[in-house]
Automatic annotation (TrEMBL):
<feature type="transmembrane region" description="Helical">
    <location>
        <begin position="180"/>
        <end position="199"/>
    </location>
</feature>
<keyword id="KW-1207">Sterol metabolism</keyword>
<keyword id="KW-0812">Transmembrane</keyword>
<keyword id="KW-0597">Phosphoprotein</keyword>
<feature type="transmembrane region" description="Helical">
    <location>
        <begin position="220"/>
        <end position="241"/>
    </location>
</feature>
<protein>
    <recommendedName>
        <fullName>Delta(14)-sterol reductase</fullName>
        <ecNumber>1.3.1.70</ecNumber>
    </recommendedName>
</protein>
<feature type="transmembrane region" description="Helical">
    <location>
        <begin position="154"/>
        <end position="174"/>
    </location>
</feature>
<keyword id="KW-0756">Sterol biosynthesis</keyword>
<dbReference type="Pfam" id="PF01222">
    <property type="entry name" value="ERG4_ERG24"/>
</dbReference>
<keyword id="KW-0753">Steroid metabolism</keyword>
<keyword id="KW-0443">Lipid metabolism</keyword>
<keyword id="KW-0675">Receptor</keyword>
<dbReference type="InterPro" id="IPR018083">
    <property type="entry name" value="Sterol_reductase_CS"/>
</dbReference>
<comment type="similarity">
    <text>Belongs to the ERG4/ERG24 family.</text>
</comment>
<keyword id="KW-0238">DNA-binding</keyword>
<feature type="transmembrane region" description="Helical">
    <location>
        <begin position="261"/>
        <end position="280"/>
    </location>
</feature>
<keyword id="KW-0444">Lipid biosynthesis</keyword>
């Protein structure tokens, strides 16, 4: 539906460059909307049954619960607000903004084709979004869905941070063109492919094992049994580091920034922020898994000593 709507707008010669010219206004408007949504979510959570409250957002302190989310999965009828916002508006908005930046670059610089740098950024990030939407069932096992409530943190992240911060590379290239050679483009593409392969194959191993650990095709995977009945993988990517999906994510984030060159730190804000985010999330995961799996988790940590970066961290 979004693609069809964009196609119609372009057909009727609507200037998507408008998104570039009013980037900050759109970001501020999205922030105001996310604040309004967060207030609504908190007010309605006050009437939610105890069993529907989030384990991580039920402290009794207003500011903390408002920020992290008081209700786990607020719904309007059968419509899950958190699940929808986690995948749809932010990710699709990110792609739309990137496309607008691509068209703005062509218009402003009077180009018949987008620059190679802009093509790489758009292609890499489009692949990431398509992968997330294609494998959307995988989000059901993430901490965002199973543990965190839907409050300001996720609302702002989904509706503001993802579309407007994750598109900074494309936004930067409009005002700061960076010509790269084909060999450099090939090297960056290889780096992105390596990151994507690690990210996707690690997530697929975990998700397939969780769905059906007795699948004969997964017989090569070794695991440590836990008291919960689940197994902790100690082979494949999960025997390499404890969070190989995070490693792949970070490699891809670096590949998205490299087409912008090295004249400004702005395009690298995302990868710097993302490393900080994933290291913090890994610490939360570590605490959660230690509580959940106990001795089995300690055995796993002995088998797999590195958390994200092999031989470093």
């Amino acid at each position: 539906l979004t693609a069809a709507a964009i196609g119609i707008l372009i057909y009727f010669q609507f200037e998507l460059r408008y998104l570039y010219d009013h980037f900050m206004q759109f970001a501020v408007s999205a922030a105001a909307f996310s604040m309004g949504l967060s207030i609504y979510l908190y007010i309605r959570s006050l009437r939610a049954p105890e069993e529907e409250l989030a384990p991580g957002g039920n402290s009794g302190y207003f500011i903390y619960d408002f920020f992290t989310g008081h209700e786990l999965n607020p719904r309007i009828g059968s419509f899950d607000l958190k699940y929808f916002c986690e995948l749809r508006p932010g990710l699709i908005g990110w792609v739309v903004i990137n496309l607008a930046m691509l068209l703005a670059e062509m218009k402003i610089h009077n180009q018949s084709m987008p620059s190679l740098s802009m093509i790489l950024v758009n292609s890499f990030q489009l692949l990431y979004v398509v992968d997330a939407l294609w494998n959307e069932e995988a989000i059901l096992t993430t901490m965002d869905i199973t543990h965190d409530g839907f409050g300001f943190m996720l609302a702002f992240g989904d509706l503001v941070w993802v579309p407007f911060v994750y598109s900074l590379q494309a936004y930067y290239l409009v005002g700061h063109p960076n010509a790269i050679s084909w060999p450099v483009a090939a090297a960056i593409t290889i780096l992105n492919c390596i990151g994507y392969y690690i990210f996707r194959s690690a997530n697929s191993q975990k998700n397939n094992f969780r769905r059906n650990p007795s699948d004969p095709r997964l017989a090569y995977l070794k695991f440590i049994p836990t008291a919960t009945g689940k197994g902790l993988l100690v082979t494949g990517w999960w025997g390499f580091v404890r969070h190989p999906n995070y490693l792949g994510d970070i490699i891809m984030a670096l590949a998205w920034s490299l087409p912008c060159g090295f004249n400004n730190i702005l395009p690298y804000f995302y990868v710097i922020y993302f490393i900080c985010l994933l290291v913090h999330r890994e610490a939360r995961d570590e605490h959660h898994c230690k509580q959940k799996y106990g001795l089995a988790w300690e055995r796993y940590c002995q088998r797999v000593p590195y958390r994200i970066f092999p031989y470093i961290y």
